[in-house]
Amino acid sequence: MKLGYFPGCSLLGTGRELQDSLFAVAKKTGLELSEIPDWNCCGSTAAHNLSHLLSLALPGRILALAEQASLPEVVVPCSACYNRLAVAQHELNESEELRKEISELIEMEYKGTSKILNIVETLAKLFSGAEPVKVEQPFGRKVACYYGCLLVRPAKILKYDRAEDPQTMDELMRKIGAEPIEWPDKVECCGAGLNVTRTDLVAKLSGRIVESAVKRGAEAIIVACPMCHANLDMRRPEIEKAMGKKYPIPVLYITEAVGLALGIGEKELGLHRHMVPVVFTEKPKPAEPSAAPAEKSAGAEE
Question: What would the pLDDT profile of 224-261 be if each residue is shown by its tens digit?
């Protein structure tokens, strides 16, 4: 399988483990990733606070470059980047006037033909179809699948999974031998872009998420977003101070959990770069991966 690839800024810096583990999984499974040439920042949380046109031009240029490179499907591992590209594509595809204006601004034609994929649905594809990837070392852990805000919202635009109770990541975890917990905080906000400016709010919001996962017996929190990982992992000292207790529970990118199940080494997956050590006190459960995914809706909730 060949896909276009947009790394975004985080995967070259603070979210390097996400790119390392994705590349390791791709190598193991034969997934071919073709990076969009001359890509730029998507604008993420900042551009739309400054200029609506800028917030469309930045992702519009990325998508136009993908079209020029003949990349019909593009995987965007960062949830913030995925959300920004998908929302911009929706707006541009809805308005011919905007498409023309953005095409003039970026000095190239934008057609809106490339399909944008998030990291969860990309990995899910590897475990489906006629020849699904085989699990070598079942990830026999009880896990809290944390989707965050940006992977499923706004529901009417993204139309991916269920907005309040998504299941795709849970299904994938079952397929690699993990046991996803039932919990009410899988789409609660962790503080997102306030990681640097308001660490006090991040500590409170992320603290509630960590506490909820631990309270329900999770051995690890699984994420698909560099900002979520930074808040739950890097800000653990602030979380523990705010909550008044210690939390040794590690936070893994979904690519890292899948990589471990495929028998890839911890260093190759970037686990040594985490602030909270990826250490489990209990031995993994010898459960076999489940082939029967949980029932879910075809589209997003209203």
Answer: 999 999 999 999 999 999 999 999 999 999 999 999 99
Instruction: Supply angle C-alpha 100, 102, 108, rounded to 5.
Output: 85
Token readout for 283 is 């031995």
* Residue 266 in tokens: 């911890």
pTM for the full predicted model: 0.91
289 found inside a domain:
no
Q: CB count, 10 Å around CB of 143?
A: 25
Q: How far apart are CA 222 and CA 218, in angstroms?
A: 10
Same domain for 139 and 269?
yes
* Rounded distance between C-alpha atoms, residue 115 and residue 105, angstroms: 22
> Is 290 part of a structural domain of the chain?
no
β-pair partners for 142 = 179
Whether residue 191 sits in one domain with residue 89:
no
Residues 150 and 244 in one domain: yes
> Given the structure tokens 């997956």, which residue do they identify?
269
Domain count, the chain: 2
DSSP state of 108: S
Do 170 and 52 share a domain, yes or no? Answer: no
Domain of 67, in residue numbers: 2-120
How does strand 115-118 pair with strand 220-223?
unpaired
Rounded to whole angstroms, the Cα distance separating 114 from 270 reads: 30
- Other CB atoms within 10 A of residue 285 CB: 14
- 178-212 pLDDT tens trace: 999 999 999 999 998 787 778 999 999 999 999 99
